[in-house]
Structure formats: structure tokens, C-alpha cells
Design goal:
The complex is a heterodimer of chains A (294) and B (356). Chain A is α/β, with parallel strands linked by helices and 294 residues long. Chain A contains ten helices and twelve strands. Helices cover 70% and strands 3% of the residues of chain B. Chain B has a two-stranded antiparallel sheet. Classes of the chains: A alpha/beta (294), B mainly alpha (356). Chains A and B meet through helix 3, strand 6, helix 4 and helix 5 of A and strand 1, strand 2, helix 8 and helix 9 of B.
């Protein structure tokens, strides 16, 4: 049922790719020999059940995790061979729960996205100023410039962090579950912004390449150009959401019976859970006896 | 209706141009605070030179400083000035050391006298004293070695594929306790007179310090000045969480090691000169930061405040219970201990983490 993986990506260019990538925490392997080509100028969304290795893969793509085997390639060169500062000029990454220095102002935080473009004797250039101004306008946080990050709402704070990543002015942007802790309106707001980032500019220049991990399969199907479904450290299927998201895939990846209908707004596949959850016939030993509860 | 500014700069900062390519970010409030502290420090210094067993008029003090002949030449120029110079340098070194170590540990409690550096210096120095090495020509060097060795041990034990801030602090506290008991062991084994001498050294004192101690300390600080300038900038980058900093192209391991190493050397050199003057390295950076309200601990203000604390502390310690002259460490501890308790209580009441 996997619709011939990589055909979709093979047709487009790909600056960032994983080759036989194996990842592990301590001795516990998490991702096994994963191959992935991230299509340029598109939104790639990685989905999968908890602990399937999706965030781990994203961290490795952003060199936050060293591969146990295989490699992540940027323009054909192993990340491990590129100075981290040079990587930071091409790949931006927003972790799941970034921590701001205490009492930092919004504009100061966004300005720190310019770090890889600055030097000791050149701490602020016209390019820095333009990038920060643009990033803040684009995420609509300009009015918050002098506020302290501590006092912002969750949605505002997430936009500020995205502004910081944007100010870094990288072609590639990796976002690790950017919608966690946000209410649904803010989730949509952030994802709409992500979509905009990848769309071509008015002058025809290609948009940014975005790779993001999302928890919500429906949001993934709605916002992805390229959907990657993972299970137990392997890619089960990848391609356009319309091709990938099927009842069979949802059953295989999430173990959930579901009905797929077209999203009434966008026409993208919408996953509606089918049969309710029932406990599997368990061995009597694991059933707690009521009498012993106290 | 918010009119959006055409250009956004980090708020609170001004861009200072230097040469054709140099562009520096200057935090305006920090600059004002530093200027204010400089005035305060100058005032404290004049007071230090005036006040003592005999009072010298400020006019005479200025005369001595300008090298003009004065009747106060002996009291001011020979007795008070060198001792004050040591106090200034020791205070500044402790201030910067504390700022750097607190930054890397992301913890306001982490300072050289909490995480084992002072205790390492004490253990080796007191150990040497009990074995008969009492010459002040050797002891400062031994205490520098002791401090650096203790810090290296803490660093190695806290390292597990990366430096975890909390583990660094906890292991440091553990080492501090262990090393303190080693010192106590030396003290009980040693000769009574040596123990008394060691006790005074361990409190931190400027007694009997002068140009011979000030000169090497001044040279060390001067040599380390470029490193401090680097640190002032590098500090910004380690204030973020590890993932974000790495994503911004910061080689966290190296930067942290550099900052800690600089802090440890400064703290050890200061301890070697005056003994562990408690709480200066803890207090100065935290007060400085509250004054400047910056996202990272300001180095210049920490240095100035450290100098103010030690010089003013020594002045008070000399005069408060005169004719008895207390070691400056007694005074800083008396002020610092309540502050530490307040810091801990406040830390537990507020959010549990994230205090940098």
C-alpha cells in the first residue's frame, strides 16, 4: 500500500536528505536506516504515533542529534563535515520547547536569530536590521517589540519564536511540533503562517523549505505538500496527502479504524475515527480485582 | 492604533559605529548603570583612603594620588593605597568570575564559593600550611592550582555527553562539602598556630596585602582582558536552551568550557590573593543584573560592583569594630548569607526552573 516511496521527492530538487540514517538514544535504537529526501520549497510534515521517532528524525536533520549510522546530507555534504555556523546559515530549527533568557524583550530575542550572520566586531548590520524587521512584520509581532517575552500569551510567544527562526534567513526551516500547547485558533494561525513561508513570493522566488512534525493527522493532511508517515523508526509511506492518507495507512500506522472523507473546506483527506476503542481481550491476571483496591 | 516602526532594533540597545566595519550593540541602561557604579566606586575609594585609624583629608589623598609631596604619604600611599588596589582587583575578578559561572550553570546560586573552587583552593593551601609551607610567595600559587583542579574535577564529573547545568551545580556543591571536610581534617591535624593562620586566610582578608600581591593580579587580569571581551559577547549565546543555541550555530561545548575556564581562573587567582572572600562572586552579578535588567548578566557592572563590595566591605570591616580589624570575608558573609537564603526561598516559591 505504500505508494512507491521517494518517487515524489525524486522529481524535485532536494537540498536536505537523509541516507540510511540510524539514530539511537544511549543504546536504544529509535530510527532505523531511514532514507528521506526533503523536497525544496515545500512543506514536509512528518506524522506518526508517539515514540515513532519523528521528532528524533527532525533533530537529526537539524544536527541536534548525531547519527549512529548513515548520514544527513546538506547539498550532498554530510552535516558532520560542515561547521555548525555554516549549517546555521542554511538550516533554521525551532525546538519543541525553546527557553528564552529571563526578562528578554521580544525584539532582542528575534535579533538573536541573526547570530550565525554576525561577528564580534560586527554585532549589528543593515542586513540584520532588515531581516529582523521583516521577520517581525511577517509574524505580526512588531507591535510587541518592547514587551518582555515572559508576559506574552502562548500564541504570541510561539509567533515570536518563529520570528526568531525567520530572522535567521535560512532556506530550510525545521519546526518541532510548533502547535503544541496552543489552542485551536492559534494552531491554525501558526500553520497558516507556515504555509505562507513555503509559498513562492510575488516576484516568483521560491518559498522556504519547511519540515515540521505534527501530532494531528488532519492538520498534517491539510497543510503538507509532502507527507511522511512513520512507525517504529521507519517510513511507512510518503507522498502527497491525498495519495498517502488512506484508511489502510491509518490502520497500519496508528492502529485505528477510520473513515477518510474530503475536508469540506480544503478537500484534503479528513480522518474520522471509526469504531470506538475497546479493550483487547486481556489475560485475567492483568484485570484488577475490585475487592483488593483498598 | 500602533504605527509600526520602519526598522526594528533590539529594544534598549544602541548601535555604536567604530571604524568602517565595526558595529557594536550597546545596552543603554547597562551603560548608565556602569557609569553610576564607576562614580560610586570612585567615591568609595576616596573614602577608603581618607578613613582609618587617622583621618586624612580628601585634598591630601588627591595630592598623594597625583604624586605630589604630602604629609599623608606614608598612611595613604604606603599603607592604604596598595591594600585598596588589591581589594579593587580581587572584587572585580570575583564579580566577573561569578557572572560567568552563573551564566553557564544557569543558576544564580552557582558561584566559585558554592561549587567547590574556593574549597579546592582552601584544601590545598591549608594542606600546604600544615605541612610547613607558610611562605606567602608560594601559597597563592598553590591556591590557584587547588581552585582550578577542583573545578576541573567538577566539570569532568558533571560531563555526560554534554554539560547539564543542574548536574554541574549539584556535583559542585558535593565537591565543596567533601573538600571542606578535607580542609577541616588538615586544620585538626595541624599545629595550633598554623590552624589560626589558616582560619584567617580562609575567611578572606586583605590584611597585610600590598603591591607584591596587587602586581601579579593586575597583570593576570590585563592578560585576560581580551578573553573577557570575548566572553561578554559569547555569554549572549549560551543564555538560550541548548537546542536553540546549537541551531543558531553556537558550538556550545566549546563556548561553555571557555566561559567556565575563564571564570575559574579569575576566581582562583582572586582566592589566591585574598583567600575566599565569601559571597562576592554570588552577590555582585545578581545585583548588577537586577540593576541593568538585561537578559544576560552584565560583566562590566558585575566587575565594578564586585570591586565596590570588597573595598567598601574592607573599609567597614576595618572601622566598624575598631580597634579590632575584622577580615573583609566576615562582613561579606554577614551580608551574603541572608541574601542566599532569600534567593533560595524566592526560587522555591516562584517557578522551579529557568532562573539564569
Amino acid at each position: 500500500m505504500s505508494p512507491s516511496p521517494t518517487t515524489d521527492a525524486a522529481q524535485t530538487d532536494s537540498r536536505l536528505a537523509a541516507r540510511a540514517l540510524t539514530l539511537a538514544y544511549e543504546d536504544r535504537p529509535v530510527v532505523h536506516e531511514l532514507d528521506l529526501a526533503v523536497p525544496d520549497g515545500q512543506v514536509t510534515v512528518i506524522v506518526g504515533p508517539n515514540a515513532c521517532g519523528k521528532s528524533t528524525t527532525l533533530r537529526a536533520l537539524g544536527r541536534l542529534l548525531k547519527p549512529r549510522g548513515g548520514a544527513v546530507l546538506l547539498d550532498g555534504t554530510e552535516l558532520a563535515r560542515i561547521p555548525t555556523r555554516r549549517i546555521a546559515q542554511s538550516i533554521g530549527l525551532l525546538p519543541q520547547t525553546p527557553v528564552a533568557p529571563e526578562a528578554i524583550t521580544v525584539s532582542d530575542l528575534v535579533a538573536r536569530g541573526r547570530q550565525p550572520h554576525q561577528s564580534w566586531w560586527q554585532q549589528w548590520s543593515d542586513a540584520d536590521e532588515r531581516a529582523v524587521t521583516d521577520a517581525m512584520a511577517r509574524t505580526d509581532v512588531t507591535a510587541l517589540a518592547d514587551r518582555s517575552v515572559d508576559e506574552l500569551s502562548g500564541g504570541q510567544r510561539q509567533r515570536v519564536w518563529i520570528a526568531m527562526a525567520l530572522a535567521q534567513e535560512t532556506d530550510l526551516l525545521l519546526l518541532d511540533e510548533p502547535t503544541t500547547y496552543l489552542d485551536i485558533a492559534h494552531q491554525v494561525e501558526v500553520l497558516d503562517l507556515v504555509r505562507q513561508l513555503a509559498s513562492p513570493a510575488a516576484d516568483g522566488t521560491r518559498g522556504r523549505t519547511v519540515v515540521t512534525v505534527l501530532h494531528d493527522l488532519n492538520q498534517a493532511a491539510r497543510y503538507a505538500d509532502h507527507l511522511v508517515a512513520m512507525k517504529e523508526g521507519r517510513i511507512v509511506a510518503e507522498g502527497r496527502p491525498g495519495d498517502v492518507v488512506t484508511a489502510g495507512l491509518v490502520r497500519e500506522v496508528f492502529g485505528l479504524e477510520a473513515v477518510i472523507v474530503p475536508d469540506p473546506v480544503t478537500g484534503s483527506p479528513l480522518v474520522v475515527p471509526g469504531a470506538p476503542w475497546t479493550p483487547a481481550p486481556a489475560s485475567s491476571a492483568s484485570v484488577p480485582t475490585p475487592g483488593k483496591a483498598l | 492604533m500602533s504605527s509600526t516602526p520602519v526598522r526594528v532594533r533590539p529594544s534598549g540597545y544602541s548601535v555604536v559605529k567604530a571604524g568602517p566595519r565595526g558595529r557594536f550593540l550597546l545596552h543603554r541602561r547597562s551603560s548608565v548603570v556602569a557609569a553610576g557604579l564607576l562614580v560610586l566606586l570612585a567615591t568609595v575609594c576616596v573614602a577608603y583612603l581618607c578613613v582609618g585609624e587617622s583621618f586624612v583629608a580628601p585634598g591630601e589623598v588627591v595630592k598623594v594620588l597625583l604624586g605630589q609631596p604630602s604629609s599623608a604619604e606614608l598612611v595613604v600611599g604606603t599603607l592604604r593605597l596598595p591594600r585598596m588596589a588589591v581589594g579593587l582587583l580581587v572584587g572585580a575578578a570575583f564579580g566577573i568570575a561569578g557572572a560567568l559561572i552563573q551564566t553557564v550553570a544557569r543558576n544564580p546560586l552557582a558561584s566559585p564559593d558554592i561549587i567547590g573552587i574556593s574549597q579546592g583552593a582552601s584544601a590545598l593551601t591549608v594542606g600546604a600550611m600544615t605541612f610547613g609551607i607558610t611562605s606567602y610567595a608560594f601559597l597563592p600559587y598553590l591556591s590557584v592550582i587547588g581552585g582550578i583542579a577542583a573545578a576541573a574535577l567538577v566539570y569532568v564529573f558533571a560531563w555526560r555527553g554534554g554539560l547539564h547545568a543542574t548536574r554541574f551545580v549539584l556535583i559542585g556543591i558535593g565537591f565543596a562539602v567533601a573538600l571542606r571536610s578535607v580542609t577541616t581534617l588538615f586544620l585538626t591535624k595541624g599545629d595550633y598556630l598554623v590552624a589560626q593562620q589558616a582560619q584567617i586566610w580562609m575567611t578572606g582578608s586583605l590584611n597585610g596585602r600590598g603591591w607584591p600581591e596587587a602586581a601579579p593580579l593586575a597583570w593576570t587580569l590585563l592578560l585576560l582582558l581580551p578573553a573577557v571581551a570575548w566572553a561578554a559577547r559569547a555569554q549572549r549565546t549560551v543564555a538560550m536552551d541548548d537546542d536553540t543555541a546549537t541551531a543558531l550555530g553556537v558550538r556550545l561545548g566549546r563556548v561553555r568550557l571557555g566561559l567556565v575556564a575563564l571564570g575559574v581562573v579569575l576566581a582562583s587567582v582572586a582566592t589566591g590573593t585574598a583567600g575566599p572572600v565569601d559571597f562576592v562572586a554570588l552577590l555582585a552579578p545578581q545585583i548588577a543584573r537586577r540593576m541593568t535588567r538585561t537578559a544576560q548578566i552584565p560583566l562590566v557592572s558585575s566587575a565594578l560592583l564586585g570591586a565596590v563590595i570588597v573595598v567598601l566591605g574592607d573599609l567597614l570591616a576595618r572601622r566598624l569594630f575598631s580597634p579590632t580589624e575584622l577580615p573583609v570575608g566576615v562582613l561579606t558573609a554577614a551580608v551574603g548569607a541572608p541574601y542566599l537564603i532569600w534567593l533560595i526561598i524566592r526560587g522555591h516559591r516562584g517557578r522551579s526552573g529557568g532562573t539564569a
